[in-house]
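Aim 2, interim progress: modelling of the zinc ion-bound target.
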Amino acid sequence: MAEKFYELPIDEYLPQNGNRGYRVSRYELELVYKVASNRLSGRAEITAVTTAVQQRFSLDLSQSLGVTKVLVNGAKAAKYAHQRGKLTVTPAQKIPAGGVLAVVVQYSGTPTPVRGPWGEVGWEELTEGALVASQPNGAASWFPCDDHPSSKASYRISITTESPYYAVANGKLLRKQTKASQTTWVYDQPEPMATYLATIQIGPYNKYRVGSAHDEVPMNTIMPSRLRARFDHDFGRQPEMMAEFRKLFGPYPFESYTVVITDDDLEIPIEAQGISIFGANHCDGRRGAERLVAHELAHQWFGNSLTVGQWRDIWLHEGFACYAEWLWSQAGGGATADQLARAARQNLSRAPQDIVVGDPGPQLMFDDRVYKRGALTLHSLRLALGDPAFFALLWDWTTRYRHSTVSAEEFIDLAGHFSPVSLRPIFDRWLYDQPLPELPPAVGATG
Ligand SMILES: [Zn+2]
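Predicted structure of the complex, ligand included:
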């Protein structure tokens, strides 16, 4: 019986990922990376609490990394095996339920991205440097972890690499130390973070402040100096965007916000906790990517602070971030949210209506229809509630569930408190039925 329970997937969308029997509270990673040879060696100290007595437990870790040592609570593990992306550890002493599990894993190898239905995710070499883009299951390409979005923990990440390079990780830079030709960068991320949002970015970068020194949320950019002038233009309205989103979505959830621009082009920007990563191509000198600048910033609230417990609810990340694009467009003097919503609905009406946005399945979880129809769900809700109740709901949502795990059910329940009539039909039609609903006519301030 126990074995069976152990093997039940945590998330049907990613049946191989995530593990049972413990809850991680902290990761401390000490990494050494050689840019020229793409060689990574690491020591991960994982602090967890067991939720059941178990003979053994497992962590997610890619097979491209080899394990050389495993300690459990200071003692050598009785046994460990690393197969099919799982590091299974048998402690020398059985650990009682509720007991502390301090696991140290030493490992090294040539990290490669994890291949899946969504292409390659995880650690990736750049022309000069490396990046991490883990959504949804790439974290195990660079550290042993409980790789599931509901498993949030604090982090300390130390990364040592060749001195000419700038190395970024999540959180606050605690110290930077150069010894001979190597520099060690130590970052601390105290707010809980999902594994897919943990990141390392290494490249020929410099750091610049964005906005003014008096801004309440410090903003920086880390990028090749050749892109500075374009960045200043293309991301020039980011401070206003930050102010607008803080007004609409509540306090910014982290200590600072960093934008990394890679020297290479990137197909799409990458979200990470406290950080967004754009490609050199997103600095086109024409603000061509401003929609994405707003989208990625919004993910700090929707995705990073409030993170889904199950990937089927991904519209809670992408629908909200897409709606934030529309809100920013209107606030920034462009098309109104209502105009953009109606145009998006028009486009969707020409696409196949064979997706359930509230449970799209793993193959379609990043389908554009999840983004657009997720945003339309919110617009439809806004038209039903009116602006004061709708924005009060958004504020309540981000405050109540700050730094935690969320579900669509929780959002639907909370929305119910802002309406005298049942909102269930709106959610059912937009999220759980396939045919595309009509948008009600625009009213008042949303027009
Ligand atoms: Zn997104």
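The chain has three domains: 2-202, 206-300, 308-432. Confidence is low (pLDDT under 50) at residues 1-5.
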